[in-house]
Amino acid sequence: PPSAAVNLRPGAEQKVVFITARVHPGETPSSFVCQGIIDFLVSQHPIAKVLRDHLVFKIAPMLNPDGVYLGNYRCSLMGFDLNRHWANPSPWAHPTLHGVKQLIIEMYNNPKINLEFYIDIHAHSTMMNGFMYGNIFEDEERFQRQAVFPKLLCQNAEDFSYSSTSFNRDAVKAGTGRRFLGGLLNDTSYCYTLEVSFYSYVLGGPNSAVPYTEEAYMKLGRNVARTFLDYYRLNSLVERPLAPTPKTR
């Protein structure tokens, strides 16, 4: 039908945003941020409709379910920090990573699919606000393009800090999703770790720390989703509601 989503038309190239969360079981805020993204994307919000029409979102909300079930802080059932095993995940010892990585490689090898974003959501125990880690590239233009999404997010989310956002290639982080996929995917893909504080964000002066709530984490997730509208310049396609829309939980 003519009303079919742009990205579902036969032969259409699919732009994919891949989001993963909770690879470290103790980082519970990452689940609330991810929940905010999911709730927003499946909602009837006019922005969500436009995003669904133009982008494909693949979301793995919990990469470490056994660790979460056991109440571990960082490891899986078998004692692995999964976020150090992306380079060569074992289907037996790291099944969730293995599955996600296979899916990402399949999409990467499919000429009809453009895997444009990979975002892995974490929580940070010592820093405030939301912020991102990105990769370092020799190519200056690619490096600058990578800064666009966090800068746009900063405009949408008052609790997101661009000044805390950093780009690195620390050897300790080599086995992380962001670093590994940043090296695997081509230069039109952007890989980030999205971090959010366990406890507070700062508005205004240094003494005005606001404690995070579940709702505030979910709001950050909604704002992450909305930022794709700005990034892909889809704003003109959003139907303007006639009356203020009630805030949905």
UniProtKB/TrEMBL annotation:
So where's the catalytic machinery, residue-wise?
E195 (proton donor/acceptor)
Q: Name one GO molecular function term.
A: zinc ion binding
Q: Which GO terms describe its biological process?
A: proteolysis
Its required cofactor(s), as named, are: Zn(2+)
Keyword terms, alphabetized: Carboxypeptidase, Hydrolase, Protease
Q: Which InterPro entries match?
A: Cytosolic_carboxypeptidase, Peptidase_M14
Instruction: State one Pfam family annotation.
Output: Peptidase_M14
Boundaries of every Peptidase M14 domain copy: 1-232
**From what superkingdom does this record's organism come?**
Eukaryota
Tell me yes or no: is Protease among this UniProt entry's keywords.
Answer: yes
Q: Give the record's family classification.
A: Belongs to the peptidase M14 family.
Protein name from the UniProt record: CBPC6 carboxypeptidase
- Which organism is the protein's source? Oceanodroma tethys (Wedge-rumped storm-petrel)
This chain is encoded by the gene named Agbl4_0
